């Protein structure tokens, strides 16, 4: 809010290079291991997750690149391929950690911003279809991912192993009812792993109920609407793509 966003333009490539380097450090074994994955870089007591910085880095770079190539955005070789190559490299580094979810988000961000910038829809549609097929292959032929998928389909019979976390989250939502048990009175925080991060909304559902949960969703809708409004009102295309990408 205190910085003129246009000052980010000359930093687009350095930021992209920095996040790519951090992802590479995780892949080559210099990352901090947690949950059978090397997704963090430990700087003393501070743990940085490069995949999260990559999401912001790709948005800044795409905003810069797409605004610079505005008149050639419909060209497959100029407006589409270079952006696909860059996000492909970052997504591949995420998959090596492994971090399937972040790879999907990076691809989704790229395709969405290409659409906002005016790239040909049939290019985006074809690549989205190929990406979806690739995701299915990555899940089906990865023993760990496929077992998690099957466990999710049958949480009741897998609640003590692979489906423990989603099963406990369902229990948390269910016990909250309409108005919840009250702030600080939820019990699932004792049983739900990572209740303060990945599964925070399950605790919200338990403690403030369906009404409180919907209130949080409305806050997100307000945040998104303000972000998109900022994109529409931006003074240049770089600002439009930057605001849209960050909001997405």
Share of residues in strands: 5-15%
Shape: globular
User: Could you give the order of strands across the largest sheet?
Assistant: 1-2-3
Order of helical and strand elements: HEEEHHHHHHHH
Q: What low-confidence regions span 5 or more consecutive residues with pLDDT below 50?
A: none
Indicate the structural class: mainly alpha
Tell me the radius of gyration. Answer: 20 Å
Distance between the termini: 18 Å
**Average pLDDT number:** 89
Tell me about this structure.
With about 250 residues, the chain is mainly alpha-helical. It is built from nine helices and three strands; from the N terminus they run αβββαααααααα. A three-stranded antiparallel sheet has the order 1-2-3. Helix 3 (about 75-95) packs antiparallel against helix 4. The longest helix has about 35 residues, at about 200-235. The chain starts with 11 loop residues before the first helix and ends with a helix. The relative contact order is 0.10. The model has no long low-confidence stretch (mean pLDDT about 90).
Task: Give a short synopsis of this structure.
With 248 residues, the chain is mainly alpha-helical.
List keywords for this structure.
248 residues, mainly alpha, three-stranded antiparallel beta sheet, 67% helix
SSE order and pairing:
Elements: H1 12-30, E1 32-34, E2 37-43, E3 46-48, H2 50-68, H3 76-95, H4 100-117, H5 121-140, H6 143-153, H7 164-176, H8 200-233, H9 237-247
Antiparallel strand pairs: 1-2, 2-3
Helix pairs in contact: 1-2, 1-3, 2-3, 2-4, 2-9, 3-4, 4-5, 7-8, 8-9
